[in-house]
């Protein structure tokens, strides 16, 4: 088995989860197969996201190339899902006070 994030072969089983020691990604192989279906994008809680949804950021995120921070709890409206995600950033959105940016779905939850 290989890590779905970094493609490492050095993964190990921990209970019912698989863990990658190189990127610290943890996943359940049963739910990972479901997520791979047709490019479905899910939030941190496993809810399926769609264009136009509103999401809430679940942790503070530093904006690359800037001193700005997107605070945890920030609500983002009218997201757009990106099919060909760059570096895992599969949500395009506008955040008040910051502007247009891309987010990773693993750091948001459906509002």
From TrEMBL:
Gene3D superfamilies (alphabetical): 2.20.25.10, SH3 Domains (2.30.30.40)
Pfam families for the chain: YjdM, Zn_Ribbon_YjdM
SUPFAM superfamilies reported in the protein's UniProt record: Prokaryotic SH3-related domain, Zinc beta-ribbon
Protein YjdM C-terminal domain: residues covered: 41-111
Residue intervals of the Protein YjdM N-terminal domain: 2-28
InterPro entries: YjdM (IPR004624), YjdM_C (IPR013988), YjdM_N (IPR013987)
PANTHER family referenced in this protein's UniProt entry, alphabetically: PROTEIN YJDM (PTHR30305:SF3), PROTEIN YJDM-RELATED (PTHR30305)
Similarity-based family: Belongs to the YjdM family.
The protein's name: Alkylphosphonate utilization protein
């Amino acid at each position: 088995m290989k890590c779905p994030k970094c493609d490492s072969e050095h993964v190990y089983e921990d209970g019912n989860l698989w863990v990658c020691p190189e990127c610290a990604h943890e996943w359940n192989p049963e739910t990972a197969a479901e997520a791979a279906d047709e490019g479905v994008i899910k939030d941190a809680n496993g809810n399926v996201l769609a264009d136009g949804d509103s999401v809430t950021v679940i942790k503070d995120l530093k904006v690359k190339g800037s001193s700005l921070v997107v605070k945890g709890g920030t609500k983002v409206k009218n997201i757009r899902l990106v099919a060909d995600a760059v570096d895992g950033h599969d949500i395009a959105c506008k955040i008040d006070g910051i502007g247009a940016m891309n987010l990773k779905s693993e750091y948001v939850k459906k509002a």
